[in-house]
Amino acid sequence: MIRKAELGDAEALAALSGQLGYPATTAAMRERLALILPSADHAVFVAEVQGRVVAWTHVLKVLHLESGLCAEIAGLVVDEAHRGDGLGAALVRCAIDWTRSQEFAVLNVRSRAERLRTHQFYLRLGFVQTKVQHLFELRMPD
User: Fold this and answer.
1) Which parts of the chain fold into alpha helices (H)?
2) Is 105 inside a domain boundary?
3) In this structure, is residue 120 part of a structural domain?
4) Positive or negative, the Cα torsion across 90, 10, 104, 137?
5) pLDDT tens profile 75-109
6) Which terminus of the chain, N or C, has less C-beta within 10 A?
7) What is the spatial distance between Cα 60 and Cα 8, in angstroms, rounded to a whole number?
8) Bridge partner residues of 45 (DSSP)
9) pLDDT tens, 104-127?
10) Domain of 88: which CATH number?
């Protein structure tokens, strides 16, 4: 079953975020969800198997001065035990539907260079690789 995420999903989303390589506490995830869920510029969908959340995706509106409005999948993770079951593709379809409902012409997704299986997944779903880039981060001092 695919549905929109709720605040009560914070613990499961935090655990899955850790599998994606982005550890989060339940409290931190709850805070993020509290900001994201009411926003019309974001959507978070979850997949449940036997009443347990085992996958999620987050899609959002992005506006760049140089390229305009689009949607972007900010995160997609399927529990290791359920990969290959079609849940990721189902969640991407939800992101596509949301993108269309917002009347955006483009849905982007970024994926780390080492995630080769993930790249193949998106290519199978019809995405096209348009560029390779590096991410530079500057942490703000306390």
Assistant:
1) 10-20, 26-36, 87-101, 116-124
2) yes
3) yes
4) negative
5) 999 999 999 999 999 999 999 999 999 999 999 99
6) C
7) 21
8) 4, 57
9) 999 999 998 889 899 999 999 999
10) 3.40.630.30
